[in-house]
Design goal:
This protein is of the alpha/beta class. The chain contains 14 helices and 17 strands. Helix 1 packs across helix 2 and helix 10 runs parallel beside helix 13. The N terminus is likely disordered.
Length: about 500
């Protein structure tokens, strides 16, 4: 994408300090596809000061500074094709590499010495970001290694960023919280969920709280149900080793969908700051009873057709055991037992190999009293909907009823639409937004310790007693059993 059409994170956001960022998992796919392009984009836009240092850390001993820069430059030219002529000079000036081998104490001491040497050589301010772009199993030993090497604190501020999943269940999340708190203070811990960096997710707060039109309708008095869908048309894409141990509930529901739920349902925060917003999110989670197996439907995709192409079933994917019962689809119903939402069902749905890739929140409003339209079939008068599309084609649709001109009394459903790309051009990358927030010390879009534990608590019973997955053809919207979660006389699941 040409630089002239690429969206910047924000106007006027520029750091006053030159930090040192250490990325663990520096030779991995996340680093190459997402983190390096985001950091390069921040630098190109002037949000990351010249002279900042990025130190890649990984087990591999195949790289030194020069060879790592070459590896990174190839990735940037593939995944960040703006300002290609500036990529090599930026890599040479910014990137360094330090192997941590098997993660022994000596490896972390060597890392600490390298950090200190780079800060002295480049006259940095002593402010550090430690980014764990690692699988869950590597979090604990890495955190302990950093802490024992004295890297929990530095000459300036130190912040640690931990990718999802933060735990595999409630007990492991609690254990990981206890471990990280031994070496890092909670304000310096940034549990990252890249969904929260999307502009449309952040705009949920503006849509609700800056528009009295919507906030005045945002309750059980006017809302009949809320649907949250995160659908993927892709399969495993080479991630069978991770995915078959995780499944859709751990991979998507506990974090992405639950975060969207808390933002949609929370009360008005006392202020626009991290603690006030996260306090309200936690209140929502604590108002939900743990989800029982009968409130959920699990599915597993079978062979089917997407966009005219045949795709294999889950058991035919490379690396998946033929006996696997891992769910690739989850639909569930839950209730928020508080004053605002009492009696309103929230439906969450996610899956792989579904009909299309889309992330949407659909707020369904009550139907009008049909006695006024006594000559019409009640089914002809549809409920109003607010459709919030988070990806792709980000924007909003307001669905309403009109009378077609020149006809007898009848109704027709129409839409008013808003699309970000049409108004603002391309949206900035979520990782750019979140990385800049880390560097600025803004934790608003990150998950607090009690929040992640409250989220796992919701699904503890479901993880302990998962329903057997039901088959669904690839290219569909999941197993038909998901329709049984809906209440009688409810309109069916929304179709994007």
């Amino acid at each position: 994408m040409p630089s002239s059409t690429r969206a910047s994170v924000a106007v006027g956001r520029k750091l006053e300090t030159r930090p040192l960022l250490v990325v663990f998992g520096a030779t991995g796919d996340l680093m190459r596809r997402k983190l390096l392009p985001a950091l390069y984009g921040l630098s190109v836009d002037g949000h990351l000061p010249a002279g900042s240092v990025i130190l890649g850390a990984a087990r591999s001993t195949d790289y030194q500074d020069a060879s790592y820069r070459s590896w990174a430059a190839l990735g940037l030219k593939q995944f960040s094709p703006f300002h290609p002529d500036a990529i090599d000079p930026w890599c040479d000036a910014t990137l360094f590499y330090q192997p941590v081998r098997d993660g022994a104490a000596d490896d972390y001491r060597a890392l600490a010495e390298r950090i200190a040497a780079l800060e002295k050589e480049h006259q940095l301010d002593g402010n550090r970001v430690l980014y764990l772009a690692l699988p869950f199993e590597a979090f604990a030993p890495t955190i302990q290694g950093l802490g024992e090497a004295g890297l929990g604190h530095g000459p300036g501020w130190t912040r640690i960023v931990i990718e999802k999943p933060f735990g595999r269940d409630l007990d492991s999340a609690k254990s990981l919280n206890q471990l990280v708190h031994q070496y890092f203070d909670e304000p310096s811990i940034y549990r990252i969920d890249h969904y929260l960096g999307k502009e449309t997710v952040q705009n949920l707060l503006v849509l609700r709280f800056a528009n009295v039109l919507f906030e005045s309708l945002w309750s059980r008095d006017r809302v009949s149900k809320v649907e949250i869908t995160v659908a993927e048309d892709l399969g495993l894409e080479g991630r069978a080793g991770y995915y078959d141990r995780a499944g859709a509930l751990r991979d998507m529901v506990q974090n992405h969908l639950t975060q969207l739920l808390s933002l949609v349902a929370m009360e008005v925060p006392a202020a626009y700051d991290a603690e006030a917003i996260r306090n309200e999110k936690v209140k929502v989670l604590r108002s939900i009873a743990p989800v029982r197996p009968e409130q959920a439907v699990f599915g597993q995709y079978e062979a089917g057709t997407i966009d005219g192409a045949s795709v294999p079933g889950y058991h035919q994917e490379q690396g998946v055991p033929g006996s696997s019962v891992t769910e690739t689809f989850v639909a569930l119903q839950l209730r928020i037992e508080n004053w605002r939402w009492q009696g309103v069902p929230f439906y969450l749905r996610t899956g792989k190999r579904l009909a299309q890739r889309v992330t949407q929140v659909v707020v369904n409003f009550h139907r009008p009293p049909v006695t006024f339209f006594k000559d019409l079939d009640p089914e002809d008068v549809h409920s109003n909907e607010l459709v919030i599309t988070l990806q792709p084609n980000e924007g909003f649709d307001l669905v309403f009823e009109v009378k077609p001109p020149g006809e007898a009394m009848a109704t027709r459903t129409e839409r008013m639409r808003f699309r970000y790309a049409e108004q603002f051009g391309n949206l900035p990358d979520a990782y750019q937004t979140l990385l800049l927030d880390v560097l600025e010390g803004d934790a608003t879009l990150f998950v607090r310790a009690d929040e992640v534990e409250a989220s796992w608590q919701l699904f503890a019973e479901l993880l302990a007693h998962p329903p057997a997955p039901k088959g669904y053809p690839a290219g569909s919207w999941g197993p038909s059993a998901a329709d049984q979660l809906l209440q009688p006389n409810e309109e069916p699941w929304s179709r994007p």
